[in-house]
Design a protein that fits this description.
Blueprint (H helix, E strand, L loop, with lengths): L5 E6 L8 H12 L2 E6 L1 E6 L2 E7 L2 H12 L6 E4 L5 H14 L3 E3 L14 H11 L5 E2 L3 H8 L6 H13 L6 E3 L8 E6 L4 E6 L10 H14 L4 H17 L15 H8 L1
Parallel strand pairs: 1-2, 1-5, 5-6, 6-7
Antiparallel strand pairs: 3-4, 8-9, 9-10
Helix pairs in contact: 1-7, 2-3, 3-4, 5-6, 7-8
């Protein structure tokens, strides 16, 4: 029997489909990994912003995790929105049981600018969850918070990636350059080497869910056995294609196109 690549996402929802659990599962499917999910928060949001958040009871988060862990092998997993310390404690207790690559998307603020994590939980995320990670994927504002350092240049981005690994214990760090000018350049530090991933910057406002999609693609590729460098390279290609082929939907920041990579395969 062929081995099935399985990937789990632990995150909040997005009923408009562009970010969160919905974006993760779409990405897993397009990369051809079997997607599973544990919902931490039910979020009322769309392309214009977040309207309301309802947190899933802690017992239910734990039961969701136990249901998956006890039944199906998990070959890679990611976390997205984890809104408070109590949720983080539940997840931290379960992570050692999973024994698979862990990709953390340190979701703190939505594309619209709405906060998605309580202020006091940010320190806990850095101090308690970050050391479990195989990879953390912050954008520049998230990397600034995690390191406590201002990032104004590509050199600062490189230094932040190194600090996240060597000072704060992440397995590896991918600092993303979406907030910089010029090419969209990301820097990966894996504990020994610094790698650069660049793509042409695409002039579009339709970037809802790009962080979720990028980290989900990396998670899916890791679940299929790619090494970290190759998984990030493939994930960068996936999200770049999704942004390049994004579409205007809704009246705010439209979503990326999760099936853009499928179009490439058809052309081939």
């Amino acid at each position: 029997m062929e081995k099935v690549a399985t990937a789990l996402t632990i995150a909040g929802t997005d009923p408009s489909g562009g970010a969160g659990i919905q974006a993760d599962l779409k990405t897993f499917q397009e990369v051809q990994s079997y997607g599973m999910s544990v919902i931490t928060s039910v979020v009322a949001q769309n392309t214009t912003g977040v309207q309301a958040i309802h947190h899933v009871p802690l017992e239910m988060i734990e039961q969701q995790l136990d249901a998956v862990i006890s039944d199906i092998p998990i070959l890679a997993f990611k976390t997205g929105m984890i809104a408070n310390i109590d949720m983080m404690k539940v997840i931290a207790e379960k992570i050692p049981q999973i024994r698979a690559p862990y990709v953390m998307d340190p979701v703190m603020v939505a594309t619209s600018g709405d906060a998605l994590i309580e202020a006091e939980a940010r320190d806990f995320l850095r101090e308690r969850l970050l050391p479990f990670t195989s990879l953390v994927t912050p954008n520049i504002p998230e990397a600034e918070f995690l390191t406590g350092e201002k990032i104004d240049s590509t050199d600062d981005m490189k230094q932040a990636a190194v600090v996240l690994v060597e000072r704060f214990g992440a397995g590896a760090a991918l600092v993303k350059g979406g907030h910089m000018e010029g090419e969209a350049t990301d820097f990966l530090y894996d504990g020994s080497s610094l790698h650069t991933f660049s793509s042409e910057r695409i002039d579009t406002k339709n970037t809802h869910g790009t962080g979720c999609t990028y980290s989900a693609a990396i998670t899916a590729y890791l679940s299929q056995g790619l090494n970290l460098y190759e998984a990030v390279k493939a994930g960068k290609h996936f999200v770049t294609a999704a942004i390049a082929d994004s579409f205007t939907l809704g009246s705010g920041h439209g979503p990326t196109n999760h099936w853009a990579i499928r179009k490439e395969k058809v052309k081939q």
